[in-house]
Design brief:
The protein has 74 residues and is mainly alpha-helical. It is built from 2 helices and 2 strands, in the order ααββ. Strands 1-2 form a two-stranded antiparallel ribbon.
């Protein structure tokens, strides 16, 4: 109630509409968060593989390794 003794309904309705729109947004945010963590995990796994020596030729070239006995950087 405000100072005049009347009940305020518009604030309650506004909060309910905000909650319902937040619920729709949170589903999208959860999907984006899951996708972000998957991407971070894939990139982290690729970096780990490159550092452990079990890597693709591209990562080996980046470390200065040789392919078929030839130094790629010369």
């Amino acid at each position: 109630m405000d100072a005049t003794g009347k009940r305020i309904y518009c604030r309650v309705n506004r909060e309910e509409s905000v909650l319902s729109s937040n619920h729709k947004l949170s589903i999208i945010e959860i999907v984006l968060l899951v996708a972000t963590f998957i991407i971070i995990g894939v990139v982290g796994f690729a970096i780990h593989q490159a550092g452990s020596g079990v890597a693709t030729d591209g990562a080996a070239v980046a470390r200065g390794a040789t392919i078929e006995g030839k130094n790629v950087h010369r």
